[in-house]
């Protein structure tokens, strides 16, 4: 349990480092929670189009880290963009506006064109790096042999990916814990249409890996038993991408860059929607990891917003050959803890947003939050201020402290799965930092 999730660790560092950042001239503040949106937005151009019923129209816009955008073949259609609330807002040089809804989905996001009509927004696929014919052939052979072992994970709030591999003397379905938690009540189907019913369910005690026993006829992928000895940096790898559980196999070829204690780093261009896909060592045809997360470095928010640096995206997968223990999973308790953590994370984001509003000297009557806990703090403060400012401010400080601590304390009593315990620890760090910043502000009021 020495190190559980780089994704959680990095997200914590990024967000705590920049809860509130002063705006740079001519550009909106770049808060840490926007970094992942910015990285995806700027990675490749986006095609914006409308169906014939709304009047055929198509543009390809490229977004840049300095907060500007350009349009291919249309030099006059340029301007500035910012992340604003639940959308990316584009403002053209003539003052007209466009928007793209968040969160961004590279396979199809919703947008509003300058004339107010809805539009479809799809990210263009990057040009793949040159691949030797023999490497491409090996990847194609693996898809032919094992493509049917990819799994579509469907739920009531989303879809995800997994794969079937031999583990010991049995077959198991592997995916990420965050995939299972994110889709809602999960069902499983192989790419050939076979319905899969888990015979056992467990989650790794030290990393973001979920494992389900399945009764599946035929061959399955093989797990590499000792990645340290059988693989080496520079080896060719392929990620059998099944983005967002869409049922289409993409061969994402790259190199193995590093072998770490519980992760491997590759440069195969998988995207967040590929989480749960196998990372396969081409020389041996064995699975060496499970595609899990991106890490973004050079994320200094002020320098990024000035256009001085461009964050570097690195890609990691968790190793499956040295998992340090498994926890049996009971679906009801797993999803109950997942839902509870989602609420806690939502309240943390709402508290960070409230902090930004307060630090920006937003009038108390104008403060807003959709989170019920934070919204109640604001409402009570607004009502009390009409009679006595000082008492109201003290009560507001107390209610914010309670909002930072009450749900965390309750969760500690019954959160039991290691994955959620580590997420809870991450939330404790964020809440402590948020409360510390609030207390600095409250001290100024006295």
Please outline what is shown here.
This protein is globular.
Give a description of the structure.
- This protein has 446 residues and is of the alpha+beta class.
- The chain is 33% helix and 28% strand.
- The chain contains ten helices and 23 strands.
- Strand 18 (250-259) and strand 19 (263-266) form a beta hairpin.
Count up the helices. 10
Tell me the structural class.
alpha+beta
Range of helix content: 25-40%
- Give a quick account of the main beta sheet: strands, pairing sense, barrel closure: 9 strands, mixed
Distance between the termini: 44 Å
Oligomer: single chain
**Strand proportion:** 25-35%
Report the average pLDDT across residues.
83
Q: Give the tally of β-strands.
A: 23
Poorly predicted runs are 1-33, 299-306
Cα gyration radius (Å): 24 Å
Shape: globular
